[in-house]
Write the structure tokens for this entry.
Amino acid sequence: MSQKLTIIFDLDGTLADTAPDLLKAHNHVMKKFGYQTKNIDEIKNYVGQGAAVMIGKSIWSSAKKELSKITDKKIKDEMIKEFLDFYGKNTVVDSKLIEGVYDFLKWAKSKNISMGVCTNKQEHLAVDFLKKIKIYDFFEYVAGRNTFDYCKPDPRHLTSIIEIMNGDLKKSIMIGDSENDSEAAKSAGIPMILLEDGYTEKKVEQLYHNHLIKNFVGLEKIVSKYLND
């Protein structure tokens, strides 16, 4: 028998504000390889698609004239490795849970709701982060950018997790903050709960969502409706 409800969470910008530590890692790499650093608002727009895309976009926006460096795979690979090494050692320095997350996860667990994480972070970094910030045990499954041969916005990133968790698409919800989350949820045909002020350049009205929240405080009221369906 499948569980009452499955909730799949994005990580960066949804469960936790990870931008400060990602910014430090990003700027460490930019300085080392001779590129301009970014501020916190700029980095939030790059976060959702993983380290390689984040670094690629940053280089592109700050150094278009150095196109050869963008297409030089060796340099890009070195930058990604440097980023992952630095960030891997500094994942939970200034990062913190979004308000209300811990209490909501406790409530959901008490209601026998199955929970998983679908992130475009590398899987080992996501697992390590969740453990360090002390919420890993709430989740039945954690999938990162490299867990499957596809990742968000591909809906299979979501649907594969739900299938592995023995969930039911008709009894599943996605909670996220960016276009990758909303596009994956829309294509998968599941409801989307969107956090305001997410890690995206898109406006709220441009993103598919069924509910809009500022944080996790009081989210139980929305999710309870799905429990009773």
Q: What stands out?
A: Residues 58 and 220 are 38 Å apart (CA to CA). Confidence is low (pLDDT under 50) at residues 63-68. The chain has two domains: 6-18+95-227, 19-88.
